[in-house]
Write a structure and sequence with these properties.
Belongs to the peroxiredoxin family. AhpC/Prx1 subfamily. With about 190 residues, the chain is an alpha+beta fold. The chain has 4 helices and 9 strands.
Length: about 190
């Protein structure tokens, strides 16, 4: 079953953010765009490259009104230790959610049950708390923050312009399509 247009299920968690442990819940998502960025584990190989890429592009996401939540099944203590010991992870200014109970990973259907780890899952959530974009990558394939930015801009555009759609490789400012019978078979 697809998670597209489904509401984020209720959750409460502890996250590490800017030197503090903070509470995060589904209520924090209301009224803003959010990205849930699941990754397998702290102190690994591909994960810090992805999180570092997000950190390098974080200001662009913030300009779009988007909060990023990175999530792994590690504890908030492990997140702090990784943040304190890694120059790359030390750049993160977004919440690192701890999911040691595996509840959030199960809610988003990215839990690898026999390993107790999350898949590389990316979820873009609209201001109503509904999932608009889902992307799952194999563990050995890293994601690209610039492509994610493009997808967020497209999701925001079609939300603001419900009679238009964004074609493949659409970038902000480019032409969109207005679906109609006249377009059928002409693209």
């Amino acid at each position: 079953m697809s998670l597209i247009n489904s509401e984020v299920k209720p959750f409460n968690a502890t996250a590490y953010l800017n030197g503090e442990f903070v509470d995060v819940s589904d209520a924090d998502l209301q009224g803003q765009w959010s990205i849930f960025f699941f990754y397998p584990a702290d102190f690994t190989f591909v994960c810090p490259t992805e999180l570092g890429d997000l950190a390098d592009n974080y200001e662009e996401f913030k300009k779009l009104g988007v909060e990023i939540y990175s999530v792994s099944t590690d504890t908030h203590f492990t997140h702090k230790a990784w943040h304190d010991s890694s120059e790359t992870i030390g750049k993160l200014q977004f919440p690192m959610i701890a999911d040691p109970t595996l509840r959030i990973s199960r809610n988003f259907d990215v839990l690898i049950e026999d390993a107790g780890l999350a898949e590389r899952g990316t979820f873009v959530v609209d201001p109503d708390g509904k999932i608009q974009i889902v992307e799952i990558n194999a563990g050995n394939i890293g994601r690209n923050a610039e492509e994610l930015l493009r997808k967020v801009k497209a999701a925001q555009y079609v939300r603001a312009n419900p009679n238009e759609v964004c074609p493949a490789k659409w970038k902000e400012g480019e032409e969109t399509l207005a679906p109609s019978l006249d377009l059928v078979g002409k693209i």
